[in-house]
Structure formats: C-alpha cells, structure tokens
C-alpha cells in the first residue's frame, strides 16, 4: 500500500501489533472496570476500599511507570516465588503480556469511574420493575442494568479507548515490536527520523479517526431506543 | 523488599522529582500562553480562523506524546537548516526538546478545554453585555474570558495531573526526571520493585499537592458563587 | 384466616429512622376483591403497597401470599427482609406490580419488555411467550406497536404496556401504585379503562389511587389511611357516602 523506502511492510506489521495490543488491553480493562465499579458500589467495606485504592493509585502514577513496574517488577516477583519452590532460572514475561496487564489496569481504573457514574444514573425503578416480576439480582444486573450502562458509558469509554490507543506506544520502551518500535528501527537504518516519525504519527492519527468513526456508529446504533 | 535501598536513594529520587516539577511548571506556563489564542480562534465560527487550530489540536490529541517527543528530539535534527540555526544549541538539548513537546501538547488539550468553556458561557450573559453596548474585544476581555476561566479550573487541574504523568516520558530521551532517575538507580542496584514503588509514591504525593492547589484556586476564582448549602 | 385469602398482611410497621410511616396495618384480600387505598400524600399508602412485595422492607409484621407465609429475618438496618431469596422471587412472580412511572426498560421493545418475565423467570419458551404477549397487547390495543421502544410511545400507552407486562406473568394479585398520577389528564382515561376491564374479569387488585370517582365505581372495599394508620375501612358507598371518621369525612369533602 505504501512503500516508505522499503520500510512500509515493517511499519504495517508494527501497526498490527499495536492494534492487537489495544484490543487485548481493552478486553482486560473492561472486565477490571466492571469488577471495580460493582465493588465500589457494593455494601462490602473491604471490596469498596480495595477498588478505591486500585483506582486512585493507578490514576495517580504515570502510565510509563506502571508499564515499567509490571514489566520488571512482575518478573522479579515471579522469580522470587519460583525460588521458594526451588527453581532458580531467569524468568522474563513477554512485553506483550506486560503491556496488556499495564494498559488493562490503567484503562480499568479510569473506566470503572465511567461505569460507576452510568450505573448510578439508571433510575431505581428499573431495578424494582425486575424485582417485582421475580428476577434475581444477578439477572437484573445482566439483563436490565448492564445493557443500559453500555449506552450511558459508551462516549466515556470511547474517549478512554482513544487514550489507550496512544498509550500502546509506551510498550515499545520495554521492547515490544509495535508501530513505535518498528519506526525507531526504520529510523536507525535510514537516518531519516523526521520522515518516519511523521509517518508513524499519521498512522496513529488514522487509527484514531477509524476508532472515532466506529464509536460514532455504535452511538447511533444505541440511540435506537434512546431519548425522543 | 529492601527498604535500605529506598532510604539510601530517596534524596536522589527527590532531585528527580524537582526536575519533573520544573518540566510541568515551565511547559504548563508556555502551554497555557499558547492555548489562549488557539482556544479563542477555535471558538470562532469563521472557517479561516478555526481551521488551523482545529488541525493543530486534532494532531496533538490524536497522536502519542512519545511520537511528538521523538519528532522534536530526533526528527528536527534531520534538517540541515535546523542544525545551522541559532536555536540549535537549545534544540539538541533533551531538556528543551521535552519542554517544547510538552508545551505544544498541553496547549492543544488546554485550548480544547478553553473552547468548551467559552461555548458554555450562558447566552443571556453575552446578550446582557451586548445590550449595554460592549463590542467584541471588550465582551471577550470583560465577560467571556473571566467567566470561562472560572469554569475551566476543574478540567485544567485534571490536565495538569495528566501532564505530570506524561512528563515521565522525558526519561525516554535521557532526561533525569523522577522516572529517569529511578531507571538509572535501578540499572545500578537491580531493585526495580523498591525504586519504582518509591517513585510511584512520590508521583502520588505530587498529584495530591496539585489537586489541593487547584481546589484552592477554584474556590478563589469562584468566590462570587455563594454556596447556599 | 391467612390460608384462604389471596393476601394477608398483619401488623405492618415501617420506620425510616425516627420517622414512623406505618403504624400497624392489617389487610386481607380474597379472590375477586378490588381494594382501593386512599389518603392524603404522606399518609403512607405507597409505602404500604411497596412493603407487600418487599420493595420496601417493613420494620415489623407478617406477610402471607396465597396461603404461604413469607419467611422474614431482621437485616443489619433493623428491618425485616426475606430470609429465602428464592421464595421471595417466586412470590413476587405471583404478585404483579404497576408503578407510577411505568418503569419500562428503555433498551427493550414493548414485546421484549413483556416476554422478559415469562421467558427469564417462568421459563416459558419464547414462542409461547410471544404468542401470549401479542394476545394481551391486542386487548389493550397496542399490538401494532409491539416493536416500538418505550420512548416512542405516549405515557398512557407506556402504562398500558406496563400493565400488560404484569399480566403476562399471570399474577394472582396485582398491586397498582398510583398508576395514573404521572400522566397528563387526557391520558388518564385509557389507563383507567384497562383497569376497569381487569376488575370486571374478576382479578384481585390493590389500588393506591387519587381517582376517587374510579375507586368508588370499581372497588368493593376502600381503605382510608391517615398518618400510617387505617382510619376507615369498608364498602365504597359507606366510606365515600357516610364515613364514620371525622378525618375521612374531611378528606373526602376536600377532594370531591
């Protein structure tokens, strides 16, 4: 499609890795967000405060530091545990896995606030109507609350995904061969940093635009049953 | 956990934190100066006025900050005329490159916040100003901007926190900010967990201070909104 | 006898903190009873109705539904809550509830709103539930709107669908919580019409309402609540025509 002095294929391969990383982190982050949001709203003191600590700490430290802590820290932690069981080998976790964990944690912390707001915004009567026909609380959450939460949360989640998409570039720092890393490789061969970093910028921009179009489409689809 | 390492290197981490703060404050000031004209132009309804700020804001909000930093630090050096210009002594310094990238980046976000606030000034207040004969410049200077600044505070406070966190990227171009310092310490001591957690703790404290500072500012700038509660 | 009544409530109390909203209310309804509950706002009539299926947890009392006693246990806040969630869900499935503001689920079409309970709670097949729902919708004149979303129809139509949603569960008793209070005046009639038909079929109903004329025509018993207590209870002709309580007399003359 685009040649870029022979590095086009490389950049495309990196773009694919970036997209995979973003989507995998999104899935992990959404699960964490729903868990944390329901924990924040639960009657259980312990669950509430664990979730509060998680969201405040993650939102207060740099994403890059989260990435570094997960990448270097978890390897050290796993090795320490392994040593207890008699293994004494050098263990490393893959940059991709570290990236999914770090970005998932970050996305989850911010998204849990979006979910919490959305859950609170759903009128109490919606739940009560489910109760009066004998639905169980779990079923009500799954069939009544969650589908409505999606619609309210979608704009917020869309913005957070745009942030996540850009944050994937951070994982190149720990060696993932994503778009950013591939670009840096192209730069070191070609000695044309401006050209290649500009190309990378425009690929990221294109991904952003694609995502925005998709979000817009989803919002349209959702507004079927929306306000008059 | 080896707490001795933390205690031993804590002063060095604090030095790094000072660099981090400096980066945030300097680029925050430059960024908000840039944001003012950008936001005003973006608020306009005339295409020739808002088109360029729109593209600028879209580019800086739609691409990773890391790319922007690399574009300034590595990218500019590709050009002969840059290397021969009077600015080269600055443009080859990681410190100034970080300041430039951060300023341009935060200017885009801040301009968008300003545009939102200008759009939220109640129509009635603008009409009231027009009925006493205010013209455009005076309207903006006396009514719109002061009102917008009052509304901006919570969102701008958030932006400064985000800037504090993104300033960690300075470490990727060899700057010894808080994250950069932590990474050099770890290269020597091989104690990533201890040192990174200590750095994380300092970042948390810095964000708390910034949050408090903006709460205070918000209270001051909204003195006219007497609480009824 | 709680065993042979559709519903039997004994000594229902409810407090919110220090505020005593219900101070010991008894009520028994037999099959085909249509009982209207009236009273000024703040008299506790809605709270009482919500206590019946535990949307509100009573502070004291006993609840029997179709001869079965609801198992209650004290919760942390000091109220009585169901000790057996399965029994509660099963009982709720037998008691219909119509809300003041309909509470249709906005993300489901009218038909989906109606079949949710039958398919998810009663375990009916989808086809069977749809066939029954369509039949019920035809009766309230909304069959053609079945694929609309709640936001696309009027308040009166929404309330008719909400009633249909309740009927689809084949309840043995239906509770109405001011079903016309959120409606524009011109839409009240269509909802009352549907309710009148249900009463005519011999359904057992408890109705909290401000529509005095309707209460007088449709119900066979009327309960007047004042400050959380039953002030007057009897045949509508007696309650409306010749109340014994002074407060009831004042209330009736103020609203008529």
UniProtKB/TrEMBL annotation, chain A:
Superkingdom, taxonomy of origin: Bacteria
Species for this entry: Oceanospirillum multiglobuliferum
Major subcellular site: membrane
Localization annotation: Cell inner membrane; Cell membrane
UniProt GO BP: amino acid transport
Gene Ontology CC terms: ATP-binding cassette (ABC) transporter complex
Keyword Flavoprotein on entry: no
Ranges of residues in domain ABC transmembrane type-1: 15-215
Protein name: ABC transporter permease
Membrane-spanning intervals of the chain: 12-39, 60-81, 93-111, 152-174, 194-218
NCBIfam families cross-referenced by the UniProt entry: HEQRo_perm_3TM (TIGR01726)
Keyword annotations of the record: Amino-acid transport, Cell inner membrane, Cell membrane, Membrane, Transmembrane, Transmembrane helix, Transport
Family classification: Belongs to the binding-protein-dependent transport system permease family. HisMQ subfamily.
Membrane topology term: Multi-pass membrane protein
MF terms (GO), sorted A to Z: transmembrane transporter activity
Automatic annotation (TrEMBL), chain B:
UniProt entry keywords in alphabetical sequence: Amino-acid transport, Cell inner membrane, Cell membrane, Membrane, Transmembrane, Transmembrane helix, Transport
Membrane topology value: Multi-pass membrane protein
Signal peptide positions (record): none
Localization annotation: Cell inner membrane; Cell membrane
Gene3D superfamilies: MetI-like
Segments traversing the membrane: 20-41, 53-75, 139-157, 195-217
One of the GO BP terms on file: amino acid transport
Similarity section: Belongs to the binding-protein-dependent transport system permease family. HisMQ subfamily.
Domain ABC transmembrane type-1: 17-214
Domain of life: Bacteria
GO cellular-component term (any): ATP-binding cassette (ABC) transporter complex
A GO molecular function held by the record: transmembrane transporter activity
Keyword Repeat assigned: no
Name under which the protein is recorded: Arginine ABC transporter permease protein ArtM
Record flagged with keyword Cell membrane: yes
TrEMBL record, chain C:
Molecular-function annotations in GO: ABC-type amino acid transporter activity; ATP binding; ATP hydrolysis activity
SMART domains, sorted: AAA (SM00382)
Family the entry assigns: Belongs to the ABC transporter superfamily.
Provenance organism: Oceanospirillum multiglobuliferum
Subcellular location(s) per record: Cell inner membrane
One GO cellular component term: plasma membrane
Family annotation (Gene3D superfamilies): P-loop containing nucleotide triphosphate hydrolases (3.40.50.300)
Pfam family, one: ABC_tran
Descriptive protein name: Histidine/lysine/arginine/ornithine ABC transporter ATP-binding protein
SUPFAM superfamilies, sorted: P-loop containing nucleoside triphosphate hydrolases (SSF52540)
InterPro entries: AAA+_ATPase (IPR003593), ABC_ATPase_HisP-typ (IPR030679), ABC_transporter-like_ATP-bd (IPR003439), MetN_ABC_transporter-like (IPR050086), P-loop_NTPase (IPR027417)
Primary site of residence: membrane
Residues of the ABC transporter domain: 7-252
Membrane topology label: Peripheral membrane protein
Keywords noted in UniProt: Amino-acid transport, ATP-binding, Cell membrane, Membrane, Nucleotide-binding, Transport
Tree of life domain: Bacteria
């Amino acid at each position: 499609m685009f040649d870029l002095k022979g590095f086009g294929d490389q950049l495309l391969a990196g773009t694919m890795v970036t997209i995979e990383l973003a989507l995998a982190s999104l899935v992990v982050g959404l699960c964490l967000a729903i868990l944390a949001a329901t924990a924040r709203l639960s009657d259980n003191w312990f669950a509430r405060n664990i979730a509060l600590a998680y969201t405040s700490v993650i939102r207060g430290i740099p994403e890059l530091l989260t990435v570094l802590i997960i990448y270097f820290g978890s390897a050290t932690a796993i090795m320490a545990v392994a040593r207890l069981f008699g293994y004494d080998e050098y263990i490393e976790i893959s940059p991709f896995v570290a990236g999914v964990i770090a970005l998932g944690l970050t996305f989850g912390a911010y998204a849990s606030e979006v979910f919490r707001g959305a859950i609170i915004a759903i009128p109490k009567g919606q739940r009560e109507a489910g109760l009066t026909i004998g639905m169980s609380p779990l079923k009500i959450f799954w069939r009544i609350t969650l589908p409505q939460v999606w619609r309210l949360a979608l704009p917020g989640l869309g913005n957070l995904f745009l942030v996540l998409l850009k944050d994937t570039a951070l994982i190149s720092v720990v060696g993932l061969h994503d778009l950013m890393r591939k670009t840096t490789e192209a730069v070191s061969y070609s000695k044309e940093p401006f050209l290649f970093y500009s190309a990378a910028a425009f690929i990221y921009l294109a991904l952003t635009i694609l995502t925005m179009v998709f979000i817009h489409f989803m919002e349209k689809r959702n507004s079927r049953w929306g306000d008059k | 956990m080896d707490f001795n390492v933390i205690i031993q290197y804590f002063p060095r981490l604090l030095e790094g934190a000072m660099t981090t703060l400096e980066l945030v404050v300097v680029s925050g000031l430059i960024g908000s100066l840039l944001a003012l004209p950008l936001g005003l132009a973006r608020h306009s309804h005339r295409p020739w006025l808002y088109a360029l700020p729109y593209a600028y804001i879209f580019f800086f909000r739609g691409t990773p900050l890391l790319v922007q930093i690399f574009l300034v630090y590595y990218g500019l050096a590709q050009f002969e005329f840059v290397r021969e210009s009077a600015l080269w002594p600055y443009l080859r310094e990681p410190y100034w490159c970080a300041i430039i990238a951060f300023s341009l980046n935060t200017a885009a976000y801040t301009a968008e916040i300003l545009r939102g606030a200008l759009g939220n000034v109640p129509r009635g207040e603008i009409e009231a100003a027009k009925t006493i004969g205010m013209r455009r410049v005076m309207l903006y200077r006396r009514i719109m901007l002061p009102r917008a600044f009052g509304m901006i505070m919570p969102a701008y406070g958030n932006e400064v926190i985000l800037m504090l966190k993104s300033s960690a990227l300075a470490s990727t171009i060899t700057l010894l900010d808080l994250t950069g310092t932590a990474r050099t310490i770890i290269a020597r001591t091989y104690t990533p967990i201890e040192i990174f957690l200590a750095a994380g703790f300092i970042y948390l404290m810095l964000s708390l201070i910034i949050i408090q500072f903006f709460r205070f500012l918000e209270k001051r700038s909204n003195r006219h909104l007497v609480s009824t509660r | 006898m709680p065993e042979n009544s559709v519903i039997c409530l004994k000594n229902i109390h409810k407090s919110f903190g220090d505020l005593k909203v219900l101070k010991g209310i008894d009520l028994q309804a037999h099959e085909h009873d249509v009982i209207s509950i009236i009273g000024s706002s703040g008299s506790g009539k809605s709270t009482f109705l919500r206590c019946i299926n535990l949307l509100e947890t009573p502070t004291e009392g006993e609840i029997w539904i179709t001869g079965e006693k609801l198992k209650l246990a004290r919760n942390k806040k000091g109220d009585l809550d169901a000790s057996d969630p399965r029994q509660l869900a099963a009982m709720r499935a037998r008691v219909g509830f119509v809300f003041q503001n309909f509470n249709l689920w906005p993300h489901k079409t009218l038909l989906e709103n109606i079949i949710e309970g039958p398919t998810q709670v009663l375990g009916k097949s989808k086809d069977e539930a749809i066939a029954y729902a369509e039949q019920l919708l035809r009766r309230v004149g909304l069959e053609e709107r079945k694929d609309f979303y709640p936001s696309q129809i009027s308040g009166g139509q929404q309330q008719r669908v909400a009633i249909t949603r309740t009927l689809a569960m084949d309840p043995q008793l239906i509770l109405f919580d001011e079903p016309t209070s959120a409606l524009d005046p011109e839409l009240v009639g269509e909802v009352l019409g549907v309710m009148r038909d249900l009463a005519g079929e011999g359904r057992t109903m408890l109705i909290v309402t401000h529509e005095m004329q309707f209460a007088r025509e449709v119900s066979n018993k009327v309960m007047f609540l004042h400050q959380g207590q039953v002030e007057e209870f009897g045949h509508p002709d007696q309650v409306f025509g010749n109340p014994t309580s002074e407060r009831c007399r004042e209330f009736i003359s103020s609203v008529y």
